[in-house]
Recover the amino acids of this structure.
């Protein structure tokens, strides 16, 4: 790998990081994942998703932390369910 290839890869990584925000509006999260805004509200209300960790409210709008939500989903998938 040449030095130019390394620089290009680093530049691409930087651009990708800039284009993938950590927090998105609930409406955008719904668009990306299919999880409705109402489901997000219910998870907050029931204490399943915690404010400051999974969600934040800024100026009366709900934001979702994509990484924390994905981690929560991964943990749910790995839990055994009763039939």
């Amino acid at each position: 790998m040449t030095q130019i290839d390394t620089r290009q890869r680093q530049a691409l990584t930087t651009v990708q990081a800039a284009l993938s925000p950590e927090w998105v509006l609930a409406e955008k999260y719904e668009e990306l994942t299919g999880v409705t805004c109402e489901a997000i509200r219910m998870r907050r209300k029931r204490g399943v998703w915690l404010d400051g960790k999974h969600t934040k409210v800024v100026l009366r709008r709900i934001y979702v932390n994509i990484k924390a939500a994905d981690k929560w989903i991964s943990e749910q998938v790995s839990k055994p369910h009763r039939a």
The chain is about 55% helix and 15% strand.
